[in-house]
Amino acid sequence: MPLRWGGEKARIAVIAGDGIGKEVTPEAVKVLRAVTAPAKRPLEFVEFDWGADRYLKDGVSLPAGAVEMLRDEFDAILFGALGDPRVPSNQHAADILLGLRFKLDLYVNARPVELLDERLTPLRNRTEKDIRMVVFRENTEGLYVGVGGFFKKGTADEIAVQEDVNSRKGVERIIRYSYDYAREHGLKRVCMSDKSNAMTFAHDLWQRVFKEVRQEYPKIESRHLYIDTLAMEMVRDPAQFDVIVTCNLFGDIVSDLGAQLAGGLGLAPSANIHPGRTSLFEPVHGSAPNIAGKGIANPFGAVLASAMMLDFLGWKQEAQVLREAVRAALRENFVTPELGGVKQTVEVGDWLAKFAGKVR
Ligand code: NAD
Ligand code: IPM
Ligand code: MN
Questions:
Q1: What is the pLDDT of residue 41?
Q2: Ligand 2 binding pocket includes 252 (Cβ within 6 Å)
Q3: 18 CB less than 6 Å from ligand 2?
Q4: Which of 221, 241, 267 is the last residue of a domain?
Q5: Total structural domains in the chain?
Q6: What is the pTM of this model?
Q7: Which strands make up the sheet holding 10-17, listed edge to edge?
Q8: Are residues 87 and 66 part of one domain?
Q9: With contact defined as beta carbons under 8 Å apart, do 83 and 90 qualify?
């Protein structure tokens, strides 16, 4: 993407958010500074305090004008996680995270599933080459749009309705993006997954669009699986998948499943993209209240999301260095407790930053 701030400089908005988002995001920033410094590619970071603390203090979740500011003044957004037990409605997360996905029209949620070290998978006899795929999750529609309501709320006759919104344009652009990605990356297989056997309107649209678009990519092997079967097949034989494309909710679920195949949520990155526009990069995991404040959250997911951000900015070499740094830390067992290690979040961040600075 052409940077809008004069050649080599990129402006990054940092939203660390809640819980372990506040612990892993500073480590990602540290590693990003280390990897870009020697090449004299300045990244300018501007931090925003949006999250539960701010919401509880003054009621502001996503401030007025925030979307326009991010769109016009930043190249990318580095995001931690949102979610706090003190906000049971999760309203601030809906406003900020879903708000940015929708209002910046970040229609591609790319969630790579890549086994970086074969010791990490819970599956038997699987190696790095078996678990390497990317899930493309539609990111602006579906059951996430917040259309619905209650009828007779709080009574025994209560009804709750949540609408599943699927547009022709929305379905087509995510399917097309998945094929283009496969073609550009030399990947041979695209699997579209839906639940058209039960969701006979919304996913009938997915079926029809898929049948149309797949014809434009005759060199790519196209396949359809119902989402329940996909979940089963990802566990039975993950090697059969290169690219998976699915709707918003199913993509959320299978990306956590995929994350665990590759070692767990602590390592999984994601990119929320609209090609050519300000896009948002975040680990797949949430704010993990069960470990927040203990200093033991794994920063790999945030660092690998940062690598996806560098790719997006066109800084491919630096992105590769970050991935190599994570692989090296895994080889050395320099890892946080959930991966069987004894290291703290900050220690791992320091190690990765040192590696990244040295290699460059
Ligand atoms: P979670 O991803 O926060 O945690 C699930 C499990 O994985 C927990 O046991 C946690 O300790 C572990 N885990 C997650 N990330 C880890 C890391 N980096 N290192 C080590 N262990 C890690 O999911 P949850 O518990 O279902 O949700 C907690 C809150 O986060 C909720 O409010 C939820 O809505 C929110 N959430 C936010 C996002 C986001 O901001 N993108 C994503 C998922 C969940
Ligand atoms: C994710 C999260 C979010 C989602 C939540 C926090 C709304 O689970 O990014 O995967 O469902 O998209
Ligand atoms: Mn999720």
A1: 79
A2: yes
A3: no
A4: 267
A5: 2
A6: 0.97
A7: 43-48, 10-17, 76-81, 279-283, 269-273, 108-114, 132-138, 243-246, 189-194, 221-226
A8: yes
A9: yes
